[in-house]
Write a structure and sequence with these properties.
This protein has 526 residues and is α/β, with parallel strands linked by helices. The chain is 25% helix and 17% strand. The protein has an 8-stranded parallel beta sheet with strand order 9-8-7-3-2-1-11-10. It has a 6-stranded antiparallel beta sheet with strand order 12-13-14-17-15-16. It has a 3-stranded antiparallel beta sheet with strand order 4-6-5, with no helix packed on it. The structure holds 1-deoxynojirimycin. 1-deoxynojirimycin binds next to loops.
Length: 526
């Protein structure tokens, strides 16, 4: 048995889109509370909520104006306390999103900082004089397009924002900021929250000299300007590791708490966020630095075999792996790989070694929803139209049943429902043993009951002719996973064993070889 964040499965909820209890079209905490049965029946272990703190919602909660509250749109602190208690009563853990890199421009800290060059909080954010020619302080760009600097006419200085101008970056080199953030952690930990998913943790610290980022020589000429720069001075700075270790020390005062960091980096740099270094190998940073490779790599058996082998080989001693198939920022897995192959993807996610994170709706095979331009909401898409950067398509409401509001809301949903919500919904799939939901429940139950799938070593990772295979072995037994990534049948060799799970609902035993149908996956106990 490992820690809960090792043996368990994390389920991400985008609170605006899960369940609306008051008919305003936006999901809320009371809605989530009323739907906990779904998580219990599904068989996940922890619930991660995207931000619920007070926010002007310029980036739907990723612009926090009070780190120690709950936005009225979502409910009250008392609702959050009730949710924590209800989760714990069911053996579920609750993980909050923490957004420490930037606040809202309406946060009292920023209002104060902006008052003038002499404000005591001036140095809580990153202010710079214009360049000698009066222009921008340097060439840094916002992830959401345009310069990362906005001029404050009052003081004649620019402030830095890695995202929207409404999301000024905090100065993590200022000990007062660090201390304030540690207090915020304690505030939530004292309320019983089990951990944090930390937003853009690899961006926390910026170059002390504010040097220009160099161009990326490998970027395609038609890439957006942001992608044509190397984030040499704006991401993954060496000092970030000490900042994260500081957060971890606060967490470690409390028993059984967990920190998972959002980090988009190549594997060799990603695994450094477990902490320690060659001289001091302690794992003193993120319990789990999110491993997004399955979101980003080509969907191909050979590619994924290499991804698994390289990731496993790169993990520092004692580090626990993790895998992600979907989140609120990236296209949904069913749209990326297709409805049939999404079943194989689910089997992959839930049988790899390490903690899986499952994105709400993916257990139904929900696809990206085409949101008409007049209903577009996401600022990332609205700032650079036509580039497909909007994330609305992956944030549409959870379809619970076949009713007009899909059981999500009695009002007008803030984003359109999936057009197939009358057939693709929880109630409908609940009744269908062949549904994507039923497959997820079976895989999660199997995982829970099979020590080899939770704690077992992974080995024999190989791909041949479009079939990915690997074994999971443990003192209690050995299983073999066979996944057909292709749209045609494949015969593969396999020892004698019993089928424990199948994407296409077969059972029985195998011996010597097995014929996988198109897009079929099997878990076999040898
Ligand atoms: C990463 C979050 O996942 C994304 O949704 C958000 O827009 C940015 N960080 C900025 O906080």
């Amino acid at each position: 048995m490992g820690e809960w964040w090792q043996d368990g499965v994390i389920y991400q909820v985008y609170p605006r889109s899960f369940a609306d209890s008051d008919g305003d079209g936006v999901g809320d905490l009371a809605g989530i509370l009323a739907r906990l049965d779904h998580l219990t029946a599904l068989g996940v272990d922890a619930l991660w909520l995207s931000p619920i703190q007070p926010s002007p919602m310029a980036d739907f909660g990723y612009d926090v104006s009070d780190y120690c509250g709950v936005d009225p749109l979502f409910g009250t602190l008392a609702d959050l306390d009730r949710l924590v208690a209800a989760c714990h009563a069911r053996g579920l853990r609750l993980v909050l999103d923490l957004v420490p890199n930037h606040s809202s421009d309406r946060h009292p800290w920023f209002l104060d900082s902006r008052r003038g060059r002499d404000s005591p909080r001036r140095d809580w954010y990153l202010w710079r004089d214009p360049a000698p020619d009066g222009g921008l302080p340097n060439n840094w760009l916002s992830h959401f397009g345009g310069p990362a600097w906005t001029l404050d006419p009052g003081s004649g200085q620019y402030y830095l924002h890695s995202f929207l101008p409404q999301q000024p970056d905090l100065n993590w080199r200022n000990p007062a900021v660090v201390a304030a953030m540690h207090d915020i952690l304690r505030f939530w930990l004292d309320r019983g929250v089990d951990g944090f998913r930390v937003d853009v943790i690899w961006l926390l610290i910026k170059d002390a000299l504010f040097r220009d980022n160099p161009p990326d020589p490998d970027a395609p000429a038609d890439a957006r300007p942001f992608a044509r720069q190397l984030a040499l001075h704006t991401a993954d700075q060496p000092e970030t590791h000490a900042a994260i270790a500081g957060l971890r020390r606060v967490l470690d005062v409390y028993p059984e708490r967990m920190m998972v960091g959002e980090i988009y980096l190549p594997v060799d740099r990603l695994v450094r966020y477990y902490g320690g270094n060659a001289a001091a190998p302690g794992l003193d940073e993120c319990h789990l630095p999110f491993n997004f490779q399955l979101l980003l790599c080509a969907w191909d058996a050979d590619v994924i075999a290499a991804v698994i082998r390289d990731y496993e080989a790169a993990l520092p001693p004692g580090a626990w792996p993790n895998w992600v198939l979907g989140n609120h920022d990236r296209p949904r897995v069913a749209s990326r790989v297709g409805a049939m192959q999404a079943r194989v993807a689910a089997m992959l996610l839930l049988t790899l070694r390490g903690t899986p994170t499952l994105y709400y709706g993916d257990e139904l095979g929900l696809e990206d929803v085409a949101v008409p331009p007049e209903r577009a909401q996401d600022p990332a898409g609205l700032r650079e139209p036509g580039r497909g950067l909007g994330r609305d398509a992956v944030r549409t409401p959870m379809p619970w049943d076949a009713s007009a509001g899909a059981g999500f809301t009695a009002g007008e949903p803030w984003l359109p429902l999936n057009p197939d919500h009358a057939t693709r919904n929880v109630a409908g799939q609940d009744a269908d043993p062949h549904s994507m939901l039923a497959l997820h429940r079976r895989l999660l139950a199997l995982r829970r009951a099979t020590p080899a799938l939770v704690q077992g070593a992974i080995g024999d990772v190989a791909a041949e002719d479009g079939v990915l295979r690997y074994s999971r072995s443990h003192a209690g037994g050995r299983v073999e996973v066979l996944l057909n990534f292709t749209a045609t049948g494949r015969s593969v060799a396999v020892g004698a064993g019993t089928i424990l799970a199948a994407t296409a609902g077969r059972d029985g035993s195998v011996a010597g070889s097995v014929r996988l149908s198109a897009h079929e996956g099997l878990v076999v106990a040898l």
